Amino acid sequence: MNKIHKKTILILSCFYEPFEGGAERYVKEITQRLKEKYNFIILTARLSFKLPKYEVKEGIKIYRLGIGTKFDKLLYPILAFFKSFFIKKDLIQAVLESYAGLTLLFYRIFDKKTPAFLTLQTGKVAMPVFLFKKIHQVPDKIQAISKALAERARRFGAKNVEVVPNGIDLKRFENLERKSHQGFVVITVARLEKVKGIEYLIKAMSILRSDEIRRRDPMSRSDLRWRSDLQISKSPNLQILIIGDGSERKNLEDLVRKLGLERRVKFLGLIPNEKIPEYLAAADCFVLPSLSEGLGIAILEAQACGVPVIASRVGGISDIIKDGKTGILVEPKNPEAISQAIIKIFSEPEFAQKITQNAKANLEKYDWNNIGRQIERIYQELL
Q: Are residues 179 and 323 in the same domain?
Protein backbone atom coordinates (compact mmCIF):
# COMPACT_ATOMS: atom_id res chain seq x y z
CA MET A 1 0.00 0.00 0.00
CA ASN A 2 1.42 3.38 -1.02
CA LYS A 3 2.20 5.82 1.75
CA ILE A 4 0.01 8.93 1.64
CA HIS A 5 2.01 12.03 0.75
CA LYS A 6 1.54 14.74 3.38
CA LYS A 7 1.62 18.40 2.38
CA THR A 8 4.35 20.52 3.96
CA ILE A 9 3.46 23.73 5.78
CA LEU A 10 6.22 26.21 6.58
CA ILE A 11 5.41 28.33 9.63
CA LEU A 12 7.14 31.66 10.21
CA SER A 13 7.07 32.52 13.92
CA CYS A 14 9.76 34.84 15.23
CA PHE A 15 9.20 33.56 18.77
CA TYR A 16 8.67 29.96 19.81
CA GLU A 17 9.17 27.83 22.88
CA PRO A 18 10.69 28.30 25.39
CA PHE A 19 9.66 31.92 24.66
CA GLU A 20 5.91 31.47 24.94
CA GLY A 21 2.99 33.86 24.55
CA GLY A 22 -0.39 33.55 22.89
CA ALA A 23 0.99 33.39 19.34
CA GLU A 24 3.59 30.78 20.25
CA ARG A 25 0.98 28.70 22.07
CA TYR A 26 -1.15 28.85 18.92
CA VAL A 27 1.71 27.41 16.82
CA LYS A 28 2.32 24.65 19.37
CA GLU A 29 -1.34 23.63 19.69
CA ILE A 30 -2.12 23.67 15.97
CA THR A 31 0.99 21.75 14.88
CA GLN A 32 0.53 19.08 17.54
CA ARG A 33 -3.11 18.53 16.58
CA LEU A 34 -2.50 18.41 12.83
CA LYS A 35 0.97 16.83 12.55
CA GLU A 36 -0.49 13.46 11.51
CA LYS A 37 -2.01 15.12 8.44
CA TYR A 38 0.71 17.65 7.53
CA ASN A 39 4.47 18.03 7.74
CA PHE A 40 5.27 21.18 9.73
CA ILE A 41 8.53 23.12 9.60
CA ILE A 42 8.96 26.12 11.92
CA LEU A 43 11.39 28.98 11.30
CA THR A 44 11.96 30.95 14.50
CA ALA A 45 14.56 33.27 16.01
CA ARG A 46 17.19 31.56 18.15
CA LEU A 47 17.42 34.29 20.84
CA SER A 48 19.65 32.20 23.14
CA PHE A 49 22.95 30.49 22.34
CA LYS A 50 21.85 27.62 24.60
CA LEU A 51 19.17 26.61 22.11
CA PRO A 52 20.02 24.30 19.19
CA LYS A 53 19.98 25.71 15.68
CA TYR A 54 17.96 22.73 14.49
CA GLU A 55 15.95 20.02 16.20
CA VAL A 56 12.98 17.74 15.67
CA LYS A 57 10.69 18.08 18.67
CA GLU A 58 7.49 16.06 19.05
CA GLY A 59 7.55 15.38 15.33
CA ILE A 60 8.00 19.04 14.29
CA LYS A 61 11.14 20.34 12.55
CA ILE A 62 12.39 23.56 14.13
CA TYR A 63 15.06 25.84 12.63
CA ARG A 64 16.32 28.57 14.98
CA LEU A 65 17.89 31.45 13.10
CA GLY A 66 20.52 33.87 14.37
CA ILE A 67 23.52 33.80 16.67
CA GLY A 68 21.66 33.31 19.92
CA THR A 69 21.11 36.83 21.28
CA LYS A 70 18.06 39.04 21.84
CA PHE A 71 18.97 40.89 18.62
CA ASP A 72 18.06 37.82 16.56
CA LYS A 73 14.48 39.09 16.38
CA LEU A 74 15.69 42.15 14.44
CA LEU A 75 17.54 39.93 11.97
CA TYR A 76 14.68 37.43 11.74
CA PRO A 77 12.80 38.88 8.71
CA ILE A 78 15.94 38.75 6.53
CA LEU A 79 17.24 35.39 7.82
CA ALA A 80 13.83 33.72 7.55
CA PHE A 81 13.26 35.22 4.10
CA PHE A 82 16.44 33.62 2.70
CA LYS A 83 15.97 30.33 4.58
CA SER A 84 12.42 29.90 3.31
CA PHE A 85 13.60 29.67 -0.32
CA PHE A 86 15.64 26.53 0.48
CA ILE A 87 12.69 24.67 2.03
CA LYS A 88 10.28 22.76 -0.16
CA LYS A 89 6.75 23.61 0.93
CA ASP A 90 3.12 23.61 -0.18
CA LEU A 91 1.95 26.47 2.03
CA ILE A 92 3.67 29.28 3.94
CA GLN A 93 2.06 30.70 7.09
CA ALA A 94 3.19 33.74 9.07
CA VAL A 95 2.10 33.91 12.70
CA LEU A 96 2.09 37.48 14.04
CA GLU A 97 1.90 40.47 11.76
CA SER A 98 5.17 42.04 12.89
CA TYR A 99 8.43 40.12 12.28
CA ALA A 100 6.82 37.10 10.62
CA GLY A 101 4.45 39.31 8.64
CA LEU A 102 7.36 41.35 7.33
CA THR A 103 9.10 38.12 6.28
CA LEU A 104 5.99 37.05 4.39
CA LEU A 105 5.86 40.43 2.65
CA PHE A 106 9.46 40.04 1.44
CA TYR A 107 8.83 36.45 0.36
CA ARG A 108 5.74 37.24 -1.71
CA ILE A 109 7.68 39.70 -3.83
CA PHE A 110 9.57 36.73 -5.32
CA ASP A 111 7.09 33.86 -4.93
CA LYS A 112 3.46 34.54 -5.78
CA LYS A 113 2.57 30.90 -6.46
CA THR A 114 2.95 29.28 -3.04
CA PRO A 115 -0.25 29.91 -1.04
CA ALA A 116 0.35 32.45 1.75
CA PHE A 117 -1.56 32.55 5.05
CA LEU A 118 -1.24 35.22 7.76
CA THR A 119 -2.45 34.86 11.35
CA LEU A 120 -3.12 38.17 13.14
CA GLN A 121 -2.41 38.00 16.86
CA THR A 122 -1.74 41.48 18.22
CA GLY A 123 -3.62 44.75 18.54
CA LYS A 124 -0.42 46.80 18.46
CA VAL A 125 0.86 48.45 15.26
CA ALA A 126 4.62 48.01 15.73
CA MET A 127 5.91 49.55 12.48
CA PRO A 128 5.12 52.34 9.98
CA VAL A 129 1.46 52.18 9.02
CA PHE A 130 2.09 52.02 5.25
CA LEU A 131 4.24 48.90 5.78
CA PHE A 132 1.72 47.39 8.17
CA LYS A 133 -1.04 47.88 5.59
CA LYS A 134 1.04 46.18 2.90
CA ILE A 135 1.58 43.13 5.12
CA HIS A 136 -2.21 42.74 5.35
CA GLN A 137 -2.62 42.90 1.58
CA VAL A 138 -0.22 40.18 0.39
CA PRO A 139 -1.63 36.92 1.88
CA ASP A 140 -4.20 34.76 0.11
CA LYS A 141 -5.99 34.33 3.45
CA ILE A 142 -5.93 36.06 6.82
CA GLN A 143 -6.99 34.55 10.12
CA ALA A 144 -7.75 37.12 12.82
CA ILE A 145 -8.09 35.94 16.40
CA SER A 146 -10.70 38.60 17.20
CA LYS A 147 -13.33 40.73 15.49
CA ALA A 148 -11.32 43.87 16.24
CA LEU A 149 -8.28 42.51 14.37
CA ALA A 150 -10.48 41.37 11.47
CA GLU A 151 -12.00 44.85 11.16
CA ARG A 152 -8.53 46.43 11.20
CA ALA A 153 -7.35 44.03 8.48
CA ARG A 154 -10.27 44.97 6.25
CA ARG A 155 -9.57 48.67 6.79
CA PHE A 156 -5.99 47.98 5.69
CA GLY A 157 -7.21 46.42 2.44
CA ALA A 158 -7.31 42.69 3.27
CA LYS A 159 -9.90 40.80 1.23
CA ASN A 160 -10.14 37.25 2.54
CA VAL A 161 -10.41 37.51 6.34
CA GLU A 162 -11.86 35.01 8.80
CA VAL A 163 -12.13 35.17 12.59
CA VAL A 164 -10.78 32.08 14.36
CA PRO A 165 -9.78 32.77 17.99
CA ASN A 166 -6.92 31.39 20.00
CA GLY A 167 -7.99 28.85 22.57
CA ILE A 168 -7.30 26.81 25.66
CA ASP A 169 -7.17 23.12 26.46
CA LEU A 170 -10.38 22.69 28.47
CA LYS A 171 -9.25 19.29 29.76
CA ARG A 172 -6.57 21.03 31.85
CA PHE A 173 -9.31 22.69 33.87
CA GLU A 174 -11.57 19.69 34.47
CA ASN A 175 -12.09 18.67 38.11
CA LEU A 176 -10.15 21.72 39.27
CA GLU A 177 -11.23 22.63 42.80
CA ARG A 178 -11.53 26.25 43.85
CA LYS A 179 -9.46 26.76 47.00
CA SER A 180 -10.87 28.59 50.01
CA HIS A 181 -8.67 30.90 52.06
CA GLN A 182 -8.72 33.95 54.29
CA GLY A 183 -8.66 37.38 52.71
CA PHE A 184 -9.12 38.41 49.08
CA VAL A 185 -6.59 37.54 46.35
CA VAL A 186 -6.41 39.37 43.03
CA ILE A 187 -4.28 37.70 40.36
CA THR A 188 -2.96 38.56 36.92
CA VAL A 189 -0.95 36.58 34.37
CA ALA A 190 0.85 38.73 31.80
CA ARG A 191 4.11 39.70 30.19
CA LEU A 192 5.47 42.58 32.24
CA GLU A 193 5.50 45.10 29.41
CA LYS A 194 3.94 48.56 29.13
CA VAL A 195 1.16 47.30 26.88
CA LYS A 196 -0.21 45.06 29.65
CA GLY A 197 -0.98 48.03 31.93
CA ILE A 198 0.04 46.32 35.17
CA GLU A 199 0.98 49.68 36.71
CA TYR A 200 -2.73 50.61 36.76
CA LEU A 201 -3.59 47.45 38.70
CA ILE A 202 -0.91 48.31 41.25
CA LYS A 203 -2.27 51.85 41.55
CA ALA A 204 -5.76 50.38 42.03
CA MET A 205 -4.43 48.43 45.01
CA SER A 206 -3.08 51.67 46.43
CA ILE A 207 -6.59 53.15 46.17
CA LEU A 208 -8.16 50.10 47.82
CA ARG A 209 -5.69 50.08 50.69
CA SER A 210 -5.41 53.77 51.40
CA ASP A 211 -7.46 56.23 53.36
CA GLU A 212 -8.58 57.74 50.03
CA ILE A 213 -11.59 55.44 50.26
CA ARG A 214 -12.65 56.95 53.54
CA ARG A 215 -12.15 60.49 52.23
CA ARG A 216 -14.56 60.06 49.32
CA ASP A 217 -18.11 61.28 49.65
CA PRO A 218 -20.16 58.49 51.29
CA MET A 219 -23.41 60.16 50.18
CA SER A 220 -22.63 59.26 46.55
CA ARG A 221 -22.94 55.53 47.17
CA SER A 222 -25.08 53.06 49.11
CA ASP A 223 -24.35 52.26 52.75
CA LEU A 224 -23.64 48.65 51.73
CA ARG A 225 -20.99 49.68 49.20
CA TRP A 226 -19.45 52.12 51.70
CA ARG A 227 -19.16 49.39 54.34
CA SER A 228 -17.69 47.03 51.71
CA ASP A 229 -15.02 49.61 50.89
CA LEU A 230 -14.02 49.74 54.52
CA GLN A 231 -13.97 45.95 54.83
CA ILE A 232 -11.77 45.37 51.79
CA SER A 233 -9.37 48.17 52.77
CA LYS A 234 -8.95 46.72 56.27
CA SER A 235 -8.44 43.13 55.11
CA PRO A 236 -4.92 42.06 56.12
CA ASN A 237 -4.88 39.47 53.32
CA LEU A 238 -5.94 41.71 50.45
CA GLN A 239 -3.18 41.17 47.90
CA ILE A 240 -2.23 41.04 44.23
CA LEU A 241 -0.26 38.13 42.78
CA ILE A 242 1.54 38.97 39.52
CA ILE A 243 2.63 36.00 37.38
CA GLY A 244 4.98 36.79 34.52
CA ASP A 245 8.19 38.59 33.68
CA GLY A 246 9.41 41.21 31.24
CA SER A 247 11.29 44.44 30.71
CA GLU A 248 8.97 46.44 32.99
CA ARG A 249 9.44 44.29 36.08
CA LYS A 250 11.98 46.57 37.78
CA ASN A 251 9.85 49.66 37.13
CA LEU A 252 6.81 47.92 38.56
CA GLU A 253 8.73 46.76 41.62
CA ASP A 254 9.93 50.34 42.13
CA LEU A 255 6.32 51.55 41.90
CA VAL A 256 5.26 49.01 44.54
CA ARG A 257 7.98 50.26 46.89
CA LYS A 258 7.10 53.89 46.22
CA LEU A 259 3.46 53.23 47.11
CA GLY A 260 4.38 51.16 50.18
CA LEU A 261 2.63 48.06 48.86
CA GLU A 262 5.37 45.46 49.46
CA ARG A 263 3.06 43.38 51.67
CA ARG A 264 0.15 43.68 49.25
CA VAL A 265 1.76 43.03 45.85
CA LYS A 266 3.82 39.90 45.14
CA PHE A 267 5.80 39.21 41.96
CA LEU A 268 5.89 35.45 41.34
CA GLY A 269 7.88 35.60 38.10
CA LEU A 270 7.48 32.98 35.40
CA ILE A 271 5.40 29.97 36.40
CA PRO A 272 5.32 26.78 34.27
CA ASN A 273 2.23 26.81 32.09
CA GLU A 274 0.92 23.57 33.57
CA LYS A 275 1.03 25.07 37.08
CA ILE A 276 -0.91 28.25 36.32
CA PRO A 277 -4.41 26.72 36.81
CA GLU A 278 -3.47 25.94 40.44
CA TYR A 279 -2.69 29.61 41.08
CA LEU A 280 -5.80 30.81 39.29
CA ALA A 281 -7.99 28.43 41.28
CA ALA A 282 -6.67 29.96 44.51
CA ALA A 283 -7.64 33.53 43.50
CA ASP A 284 -10.83 35.49 44.09
CA CYS A 285 -10.54 37.80 41.09
CA PHE A 286 -8.51 38.03 37.86
CA VAL A 287 -7.56 41.39 36.34
CA LEU A 288 -6.04 42.08 32.90
CA PRO A 289 -5.61 45.88 32.55
CA SER A 290 -4.13 45.80 29.02
CA LEU A 291 -3.78 48.89 26.85
CA SER A 292 -3.95 46.73 23.71
CA GLU A 293 -4.88 43.05 23.34
CA GLY A 294 -5.40 40.73 20.39
CA LEU A 295 -7.70 38.44 22.38
CA GLY A 296 -6.58 37.55 25.92
CA ILE A 297 -5.88 33.84 26.50
CA ALA A 298 -5.23 34.46 30.21
CA ILE A 299 -8.84 35.65 30.51
CA LEU A 300 -10.12 32.36 29.08
CA GLU A 301 -7.96 30.36 31.48
CA ALA A 302 -9.21 32.37 34.45
CA GLN A 303 -12.80 31.85 33.34
CA ALA A 304 -12.19 28.10 32.95
CA CYS A 305 -10.99 28.10 36.58
CA GLY A 306 -14.21 29.74 37.72
CA VAL A 307 -12.56 33.07 38.59
CA PRO A 308 -14.48 36.34 37.97
CA VAL A 309 -12.64 38.53 35.47
CA ILE A 310 -12.05 42.28 35.17
CA ALA A 311 -10.37 43.50 31.98
CA SER A 312 -9.83 46.59 29.83
CA ARG A 313 -12.28 47.44 27.09
CA VAL A 314 -9.69 47.12 24.31
CA GLY A 315 -9.07 44.98 21.22
CA GLY A 316 -10.38 41.45 21.21
CA ILE A 317 -11.22 41.36 24.92
CA SER A 318 -14.78 42.43 24.07
CA ASP A 319 -15.14 39.19 22.08
CA ILE A 320 -14.69 37.25 25.32
CA ILE A 321 -16.26 39.51 27.95
CA LYS A 322 -19.78 40.89 27.78
CA ASP A 323 -19.82 43.57 30.45
CA GLY A 324 -21.87 42.56 33.47
CA LYS A 325 -22.66 39.13 31.99
CA THR A 326 -19.36 37.22 31.63
CA GLY A 327 -17.07 39.70 33.40
CA ILE A 328 -16.49 43.39 34.00
CA LEU A 329 -15.01 45.75 31.40
CA VAL A 330 -13.23 48.94 32.47
CA GLU A 331 -11.66 51.75 30.51
CA PRO A 332 -7.87 51.40 30.05
CA LYS A 333 -5.44 53.40 32.21
CA ASN A 334 -8.07 53.82 34.93
CA PRO A 335 -7.00 52.60 38.41
CA GLU A 336 -10.18 54.04 39.97
CA ALA A 337 -12.38 51.94 37.66
CA ILE A 338 -10.32 48.82 38.42
CA SER A 339 -10.61 49.41 42.18
CA GLN A 340 -14.38 49.86 41.97
CA ALA A 341 -14.72 46.69 39.87
CA ILE A 342 -12.70 44.74 42.46
CA ILE A 343 -14.98 46.11 45.20
CA LYS A 344 -18.02 44.93 43.22
CA ILE A 345 -16.61 41.39 42.99
CA PHE A 346 -15.71 41.51 46.69
CA SER A 347 -19.03 42.86 47.94
CA GLU A 348 -21.46 41.04 45.61
CA PRO A 349 -20.68 37.29 45.71
CA GLU A 350 -23.90 36.40 43.89
CA PHE A 351 -22.94 38.67 40.99
CA ALA A 352 -19.42 37.19 40.94
CA GLN A 353 -20.87 33.68 40.80
CA LYS A 354 -23.28 34.61 38.01
CA ILE A 355 -20.62 36.04 35.69
CA THR A 356 -18.30 33.06 36.24
CA GLN A 357 -21.07 30.59 35.43
CA ASN A 358 -22.03 32.53 32.30
CA ALA A 359 -18.38 32.68 31.21
CA LYS A 360 -17.84 28.94 31.66
CA ALA A 361 -20.90 28.16 29.54
CA ASN A 362 -19.33 30.13 26.67
CA LEU A 363 -15.91 28.42 26.62
CA GLU A 364 -16.56 25.45 24.34
CA LYS A 365 -15.92 27.48 21.18
CA TYR A 366 -12.43 28.31 22.51
CA ASP A 367 -11.36 24.69 22.91
CA TRP A 368 -8.17 23.98 20.91
CA ASN A 369 -9.71 20.86 19.33
CA ASN A 370 -12.48 22.94 17.76
CA ILE A 371 -9.99 25.59 16.64
CA GLY A 372 -7.70 22.95 15.16
CA ARG A 373 -10.53 21.73 12.95
CA GLN A 374 -11.17 25.27 11.72
CA ILE A 375 -7.50 25.82 10.86
CA GLU A 376 -7.39 22.48 9.03
CA ARG A 377 -10.34 23.62 6.93
CA ILE A 378 -8.43 26.79 6.00
CA TYR A 379 -5.35 24.75 5.09
CA GLN A 380 -7.46 22.58 2.81
CA GLU A 381 -9.02 25.67 1.22
CA LEU A 382 -5.60 27.14 0.44
CA LEU A 383 -4.02 23.86 -0.73
A: yes
